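Box S1 | Example of a co-folding query
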Amino acid sequence: MKCRSQKRLAGRIRAERRVLLERLAAVERRGGVLDPRDAGGGTIRAAEAMDEVQESVVRELVLASREALISRVRALEQAEERIRSGTYGICDLCGGPIPPQRLEALPEAALCLPCAEAVENPWPSWRRRAVAPGGPRRPAA
Ligand SMILES: [Zn+2]
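Box S1 (continued) | Returned holo structure for zinc ion
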């Protein structure tokens, strides 16, 4: 991939990581102590005025967004690592190039689209197409 666009993407990755880390800090401030080791210790300040059900729902939501933020930050860090090692833009699974349009849309992408789809959906697309519409044909009983 072109050097200039990679530099630009590297800047975007850095900026996004910074924003995500700030949001993560905000989530932790809002939810009080969210470290799993402390989750049972009754230290979640925001939940003080709520009943038990609401508390667990809020905690789950905060934890879910925290997990999502952390995994995104991790993906961005891995992308920076790939830029440093010169493997950025190369699919982790098949070793093929990741199209620039995909990297523009998702700078931390580690997989090309077919590989990402294969990981997300273990059913190959040709099989999905084969059953739809109307489902597989069954012999009459
Ligand atoms: Zn691939």
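The domain at 3-111 is CATH 1.20.120.910 (Four Helix Bundle (Hemerythrin (Met), subunit A)). Residues 52-85 form the longest helix (34 residues).
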